[in-house]
Amino acid sequence: MSSATVYLVGAGPGDPGLLTLRAKELLEQADCVIYDYLASQACMRFANDAAECIFVGKKGFSDHVTQDQINECLVDAARRHAGGRIVRLKGGDPYVFGRGGEEALALRAADVAFEVVPGVTAAVAACAYAGIPVTHRGVASSVALVTGHETPDKAAPVIDWDHLALGVDTLCFYMGIRDLPHIVDRLVRAGRAPETPVALVRWGTTAAQETLTATLETVVSAVEQAQFQAPAIIVVGDVVGLRDSLAWFEQRPLFGKRVVVTRTREQASALVERLSRLGADVVEFPTIEVRQRPLDATGKESLARLSENDWVVFTSANGVACSFALLEEMGLDARAFGGARVAAIGPATADELRSHGICADLVPPRFVAESVAESLIGAGVGEGSHVCVLRAATARDVLPDLLEQAGARVSVVPVYDTVAPDSREQAAHVAELLRAKNVDAVTFTASSTVRNFCALLEDQLDEGQDVAGLMDGAAAISIGTVTSRTLADAGIPVAAEADPFTIAGLVDAACDYLG
Ligand code: SAH
Question: What mean pLDDT do residues 478-487 have?
């Protein structure tokens, strides 16, 4: 079989949302992904789990891996994965200061087929996110992408400074921080006005984006004073002045705030997505793992006779997902509910039910067990009613208790367990951030996230410290009263509580508190 095809794929500047559709598709299909430092790492989550992932990163100027070694690695991977797909993922665009051309030449020389998937290059993207259009009618009609790091082994300068300085309106320098004094000196000596505006955009398009503005005359000392570091784009030209009117990315409500999210990995995505879109730097710390529970004989019987109930009640989306999985294992489906009416504790649970073809008959006004009980009783549950509650093994008993007090016969079927996942690595990372006072908020979406958060951090504590102490300075944001009570029991003060008790409510609470 012939060797694999190598795709030289642009990963964009850092925001994974700027990955192209083609890039995402190839990552999902790849047999092997060869990636490096900067933007590409954030996109690795799209790579399929079975792909071989090879890191060939080099940081700044201290190369760990030489370009020749990378070229060899590409050819070698193509031979090993005969007939497959190799993604060579590179930050920004592969052909803009990415040495993609050299890799393509090496592949051609080795007779390996390749294709190129362009990416959003850092200069254009970082400027756009900093409120700087690289061209603008009446202000700049030309733009140049320039290396700020002339290859040191070349004796003569490779850049035609005289023509560049006066012939192009907007100049974008890559890899230029170290040589900034040299760049400024060459431009001014070639006749560019010292009062020309300059901006530096660091980690553009990511939650860590930082922008510094100055003029050619002042920029060297400004950068020194701010200790502004790579990786950054240096943009020179009058378009920089538009930033005052066009900045947007850094003005989003949660920009610059670091938020730790404690949901399960599967469930975090909606919350992470919303917080990120509002500008937060989100750190995922999965503190619960949902495990479907094998049913005992009583449980099986309860599921098989669901239709004999007046009401079937779900108190979480997980409960719905696990119940349907268990029904399927028993050869049953949504018809098992028969004429029983169905209640969901809140909108997320109702959504999960809808995805299995069932429209909830009841969603209470407040998304807590007490409110479910009240609503059910209001809907006629009482003496002689049959109610089945499908829920987690460890949960509060208020719902069955209240229903039984009202005279109902209640069967509780535990369909899943919540356990603490093996998140030791993340726990160490989160503890380090908390210790450095580098966390603005931690979100808690269930009592179990609170308990497991505390348990996972227990090993990370200093002598005599408790989790509440470690949390000092970071705001605990709770999804509702029950979670708030568990936080209070753990000695962690609640900074803000969602209203209503939903993910959207939680995000609003975080914005109000942090914004
Ligand atoms: N192929 C890449 C550039 C690689 S050279 C592209 O098309 O974007 C590496 C340089 O790109 C860095 O030194 C920095 O100047 C710039 N760069 C890459 N990502 C950046 C980002 N998110 N923000 C600012 N500059 C970035």
Answer: 95
